[in-house]
Design brief:
169 residues; alpha+beta; Peptide Deformylase; 5-stranded antiparallel sheet; 3 helices; 28% helix; 31% strand; binds nickel (II) ion
Length: 169
């Protein structure tokens, strides 16, 4: 396993539409385990492949129930449908440094995806789990949560980010 570098906004790879995965081999399993390790190291609760520079359709999502548990599921070629209800809650992203904002998401959603062997799965996600999956699937479409906030908030964040990046130099 290896920890990968997480790419941050405004890098263009975060805007690419991820390609569908058609080969289910050891390389894919290694990618998933690297993504899991990278996510927990950050630490985060979800990670899409674009975020480590690979625009392919795989995300990992934390499903641990205990505080020190590290359990995640990989979702390959995930598709969301039948969104129901809505909820506004605070979101952040490992690729959007030093920022959180309230984002509206479906409260409940149907998820269709494949596992690392290409086997189809289908389940209903709710609440926090549904939010994480919607956020990660957005990444595969080149969308970031800051695309879902007001223009004013976004322009304030851009200013803040400029300052942060200047200080880092
Ligand atoms: Ni994110």
């Amino acid at each position: 396993m290896a920890i990968k570098k997480i790419i941050t906004y405004p890098h263009p790879v975060l805007r690419e539409k991820a390609k569908k995965i058609t080969t289910f081999d050891d390389e894919l399993k290694k990618l998933a385990s690297d993504m899991g390790e990278t996510m927990y190291n950050a630490p985060g609760v979800g990670l899409a492949a674009n975020q480590i520079g690979l625009p392919v359709q795989i995300v990992v999502v934390d499903v641990s129930r205990e505080k020190d548990e590290k359990k995640f599921i990989p979702l390959v070629n995930p598709v969301l449908s039948e969104g129901e209800g809505s909820e506004i809650d605070e979101e952040g992203c490992l690729s959007v440094i030093e920022y959180q904002a309230k984002v509206k998401r479906f409260r409940k959603i149907k998820v269709t995806a494949q596992d690392l062997d290409g086997k189809e799965m289908e389940f209903i996600a709710e609440d926090r789990f549904a939010r994480i999956i919607q956020h990660e699937v957005d990444h595969l479409n080149g969308t970031l949560f800051i695309d879902r906030i007001s223009r004013l908030k976004l322009s304030l964040y851009k200013k803040k980010l400029k300052k942060i990046l200047r200080q880092k130099k």
